[in-house]
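Progress report, Aim 2. The chain analyzed during this reporting quarter is listed below.
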Amino acid sequence: MVELGDKRILLGITGGIAAYKSAELLRELQRGGADIQVVMTESACQFITPVTMQALSGKPVYTGMWDNRVPNGMPHIELSRDRALIVVAPATADFMAKLVHGSADDLLSTLCLARECPLMVAPAMNRQMWEKPATQRNVSQLRKDGIVVLGPDAGDQACGEVGMGRMLEPADVAGEISAWFRPKLLSGIHVVVTAGPTFEPIDPVRGLTNRSSGKMGYAVTRAALEAGARVTLISGPVALEPPAAAQVIRVETARQMFEAANAQANGADIFIAVAAVADYYVANNGTQKIKKEGGVPTLELALNPDIVESIANRPNPPFCVGFAAESEQLEEHAEAKRRRKKLPLLAANLVQSAIEADDNELILFDDEGSHRLGRSSKLDQARQLIRHVAKLYRPPKTAVRA
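Predicted structure tokens for the chain:
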């Protein structure tokens, strides 16, 4: 759910077919409680009219530099003075190039150059335009300049092609804006997250794995980023797109994840082990495909290392959070696992209710007892988890030299 309180946002619209999404975005932001002022480029008016946006926003829409409705004749300065954020959605390739080079030849680009508030852009363009080196250089420079780039997404495009470049859906843009305003409870903290399943090969084409989708781990990654953390995501094989701001390390087997996690834990403040790691690997896996004509093979299984337990039992461990999926006696098994592995916090759920689902119902176990989170989306569960982690985490004291 979008929560914006009474945030004052300037919504800029540039000339692309995705301008039709701006009307729904405005509504999404208003439903979250935001006050919206719309500014449109001349090109944007070819796709959606100022009358439409004025009717939806309840405010005059500004399109030109020389608008007499602004008393001092300086709309490029005045319109952003009381705004907490400027969001340009859609942002065309041309408009992003203007931002990079400081070009200010219309009201919206001049507002963005003269602003004192933060700026977000939601790119929208044909896939060929998005993929061009010039566009990618501009996107990279925008991020370096502190401008938040939302998306784009992949999918069907107005030109009839399919690929990366389409604007994020309005609800997703609104969600990103809402997340950006959230308190930065983990600002400056390095969080390492493991996510997804592992895959233990039997031969080059077969393997042992589990049904983990990785959704919960990716949600925890996003929630930690929203809280201001620097996040390293160690991901097993999943069909998910990671948050752009996360550093991603891709692994396949449990032993690869073990090595990556232990290496990253050296510089981590918080370690959150969400991944569903295989307990066993095949010790006698074949280098060639096993033929069924040879009969049923005998698999020799060996234990994989326990990643979170190994990190939690270091001499100076990061704050470690474990996950447990149980099929029965949830509270008894989860608390026993937390104590055995010496974890300050463990999140648990019944495996029957969470696998591949988009929602979840976690119970958090710590030294104070258990804390049940009501069933909600995995992202909402992740945000509640991160808030709980932020309450429990205490940075190590720096030794004072005499």
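The longest strand covers residues 319-326. The chain has two domains: 8-180, 190-392. These observations will guide the mutagenesis work planned for the next reporting period.
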